[in-house]
Every structure is written in C-alpha cells, then in structure tokens.
Amino acid sequence: MSERGERTDRLGAEGPAPLWEVFVRARRGLAHTHVGSLHAPDAELALHNARDLYTRRQEGVSIWVVPASAITASSPDEKDAFFDPAADKVYRHPTFYEVPEGAAHL
Amino acid sequence: MNGPFAFTLALGDDALIAAQRLAEWTTRAPEMEEDIALANIALDQLGAARLLLSYAGELEGAGRDEDALAYLREDREFRNCLLVELPNGDFAVTMAKLLVLSAYQLPLYTALAGCPDERLAAIGAKARKESAYHLDHATLWVKRLGDGTEESHRRMQSGIDQVWPYAHELFAARPDTPVDPATLRAEFDAAVGAVLAEATIAVPDSGWAPAGGRDGVHTEHLSYLLAEMQVLHRAHPGAHW
C-alpha cells in the first residue's frame, strides 16, 4: 500500500480541499466569464463539480477551472494608485477628438 | 406479464430505486459539491424512470400511469435488480454501486438506442449520455479512493467486495428481450476491470451471485425504501405539486 499515487495525496490531508475559480463560456463567440468558485481535491474533479454547480441549466458550452492560489489580484489598498490616474485623461477616449471636415471614413 | 412490458418495467424500476437511494445522500454527502453531483445523478435516474414507467404502463394497457406504477405497487411487484436497493453504506460503497450500475446501464442504453422499438430507442439515446457521465463520475472517485490513502483504499476495496456479487444478476440471459443483458457482460468486464486495475482494487473472485429482483424476490431493504417513497402518495392519492 506504499505505492499510492501522488495525485490523491491531498485527499488524505487535513482541512478542506483547495479552492478553484470557475469560468464559463455561455456560447460560441463569447469570452469565458467568471461565475464563482468551488472546492475540489484536483483539477479533474474541479471540472466535474463546476459542470454540476454552474452549468446544470444550460449556462455554458465550455468551462475553465483555475486554482484560486494561481490568481494574482490587485489590492484594494492600491486602488488609488492603480485606477485614479486614469480619471482625468479624457484624451484616452476616442470621443475626445473631433473628426476633421472631409474625413468621412475615419 | 408480457415480454416488452416486463423488460421496460425492470429498467424503469432499476432507475427509480437507484434515484431514491441516491437522493438519500442529499445534505449528507462528504462535501457540498458532491452533494449536488449525487442529486444531479439521482435526478437523471428519475427522469429515465419516468419515461420508462410511463411507456411500461402503455405497453401493459391496463390504464396504469407512471405514478400508479411507482407508488401503488407492493415490494413483490417491483422488478428492479437487488443492486440498486442495497443500502448506501459509506461513500465508497455508494461509488462502487454507481460504478457497477452505470457500467451496466451505459452499454444497455446504447444497445437500446439501436433497437426496433422507437420509444425504447429514443429513451436509450437520451439516457446513455447521462449514464456516460455517471460512469465518468464513479470512475473518478473509485480511482481516487482506491489509489489514495491506506484508509480510502481499504474502504474502496471493501465497497467493491460488498457490491460485486450483485453485479451477476444484471447480466442474466433474457434472449427474448430487445437487448439481451448477457451480451453486455464482456463490455462491462472490460470497462470496470480497467477502472479497478488503475484504482489498485482487486476484482473479488467470490462465486456468490444473489438474484431474484427480476422475479420480485427482494431484500428487506426494498420494503423500507418503498415505505418512505410511497407514504405521501398513499396517504393523499393523486397528490401533486
């Protein structure tokens, strides 16, 4: 019994299974959208659980699962430094510019 | 009982009793995600049971609908295999039962999809996709538990040991039916054998092969299950949502 696979070692570990973030593509042509998260011991079971939890009413045609620990997120503390500088730079929007006379197909 | 009616009734009873047993896991599964997975599988079985029992009622021609067949028969009138009425046991026993049941239902429904009876063919075509998923789900868990920790391996082996004798009844020859279950045994052995090998689970070599479900001779467990399943309908005939 000493040759059990590494794959399932975490099943015997204490505590809840790792957290996974779930992304579902509603139909062809759309991007995968974050729909929620779930616990699962490995990627294959995470995919199965996601199918049961998030697509049982035909919500999707494709699922991604990503270990929550693999996601690097911006911090709320850095919100000002990250996002405020964009507020006064109206020239970054195309509507800031007037279309010159005669440029019909710009 | 005429042949087509008895055959359809047996398949419907398999699905109905399997659904009722699996539903007992609701709110009791090891984790929330698995709770929903088991409830989904139970609902798939219930969906197949409704189609099969409705059609069985039509084949019988005595005016019994799906509710009459599900709620107003005694235990001796049920034709399900013994496997599905067995208690759930621990999670490993339930996964062993699901593995055996789905590895039997998948080739059965697949063969049914090509049979001359259009209604049975349509039911088979719908149900086989669900069975394929059930088999996939049971396979995932049997591999993980069998090839997991010392304790999970011990429980998985014990689950297979408990369930295995009841697999033989599923494949008893019935040459006069649309699909003779005996012809599915080789496919079952290959599929389940591969899963158990990867799960490092030994195939039990017990010669014990309990049977009788197809003749209405059941274990006592079925009677308790039916009492719970039928009590509301018997107290309030015709009750519906």
UniProtKB/TrEMBL annotation, chain A:
It comes from the Bacteria. InterPro entries: PaaB, PaaB_sf. This is Ring-1,2-phenylacetyl-CoA epoxidase subunit PaaB. It comes from Micromonospora phaseoli. The lineage of its organism: Bacteria, Bacillati, Actinomycetota, Actinomycetes, Micromonosporales.
Automatic annotation (TrEMBL), chain B:
InterPro entries: Aromatic_CoA_ox/epox, Ferritin-like, Ferritin-like_SF, PaaA_PaaC, PaaC. It comes from the Bacteria. GO terms for cellular component: cytosol. Signal peptide: none annotated. One of its GO terms (biological process) is phenylacetate catabolic process. This is Ring-1,2-phenylacetyl-CoA epoxidase subunit PaaC. The lineage of its organism: Bacteria, Bacillati, Actinomycetota, Actinomycetes, Micromonosporales.
